[in-house]
# Entry
Amino acid sequence: MSIFIMSDLKFTREHKWLRSNADGGITVGITDYAQQQLGDVIYVELPAQGDHIDADKDFAVIESVKTASDISIPLNGTVTGVNSRLDDEPELINDSPLDEGWLVRIETVDRDGLAELLDEDAYTAMLETLG
# Structure
């Protein structure tokens, strides 16, 4: 199984990725490993722009042919952008999970929480323990 990872990302133990943007915001998505575990994504329910995200609380749902998965992140924030392409093309999460399949962009005052997330090496090491 090949897992695609980019070194400019931070990762959660629950297989979400977060990328700091040049404008100070953060883009959020699920990892390649997560999309492989889900199988073919058929529907995505995302919050609206302007919605508040509470740390570790579900803010989105991804449905696949296998299951439905609630999405959360360990940061508080306000949604500043939503990947509306996923309304008509939910398969982008499978095809490009670390790029075109992003979920939301948020603005957060809790940037210190990013330091507590896994870097690429730590995330890769965690994946190796999963088999």
Summary: The chain has one domain: 10-109. The chain has five helices and nine strands. Strands lie at 10-11, 16-20, 26-30, 41-45, 52-53, 60-64, 68-71, 77-82, 104-107. The first helix runs from residue 32 to 38.
